[in-house]
Automatic annotation (TrEMBL):
InterPro entries: CheY-like_superfamily, OmpR/PhoB-type_DNA-bd, Sig_transdc_resp-reg_C-effctor, Sig_transdc_resp-reg_receiver, WalR-like, WH-like_DNA-bd_sf. The modification 4-aspartylphosphate is found at residue 53. Residues 4-117 form the Response regulatory domain. This is Response regulator transcription factor. It comes from the Bacteria. SMART domains: REC, Trans_reg_C. Keywords: DNA-binding, Phosphoprotein, Transcription, Transcription regulation. The keyword DNA-binding applies. Residues 130-228 bind DNA. Residues 130-228 form the OmpR/PhoB-type domain.
Amino acid sequence: MGARVLVVDDDLTVRDVMERYLTHAGYRVEVRGDGEAALAAIQADPPDLVVLDLMLPGLDGLEVCRQLRAKSSIPVIMLTALGEEEDRVLGLETGADDYVTKPFSPRELVLRIGSVLRRTAVPADADKASGTVADGDLTLDLDARRAVLAGRELVLTTREFDLLAFFLKHPGQVHRRPELLEQVWGWSFGDQSTVTVHVRRLREKIETDPVHPRRLSTVWGVGYRYDPQGTTS
C-alpha cells in the first residue's frame, strides 16, 4: 500500500488536482479544506505526510503546523505564495520539512513528497546509518530515529534529525550551505535559507543558549561546524 498523504487546501480545484496526481503516483490521499478539519483528521488517523497550504480559513497553515509540531514529527510540506520569502521562512521556522511555491507543478509536488518520505524511511548517509551517534549527553538512535538530550527525548522533524545526524557524523568539519543542501536534502540547487532556518531551529533544541551556541557554530562567510562537547561515536 502506498503512503497516506493528507492534502489541506481551501481551493477545491487545487485539492482535486493534487488528489488526482498523487493517487496516480500510488499514494493514498485524503483531503481537507480548513485547519480545524485537518487537525481532527490527523488526530483520528495520522497520515504519513501532510501537504499544508499556508493560507487557510480559520486556523491558518502556520498555526496548524505549530499545533502539529507540539505533538508529532509527521513530515509537512508547506504550500506558499510565489516569491514570498518571508512566508517560506516562517513555514520552515514553524516546523515544515519542505515547501512548494504556488503556482506549482503537480509533478514537482509528487517529487518533493517522494523525497521527504524517502528521508523519513532512510536517513542521510544510509550506508552508515545503523546504530547510534553520540556527543556527551546527546545521543541519536539512527535506526529508531530518536534523539535524546540529557535524558529528554527531542521532538525533531525529518530534516532536523537528518541535519543533526550529519553534523554528528562529521564533527569539527565546516560545511557550506550548498553542501548541506546536497548531502542532507538531496538537492543539487535550492533556497539556501532553508539550511539557515533549520540550523536555527536545531540550536533552539540542542543548545543551552541558542544565541551563543557551543555545539553548532557559525563559521562566518563559510558555513557551519559541529563542535563536540563530549565523546562522539
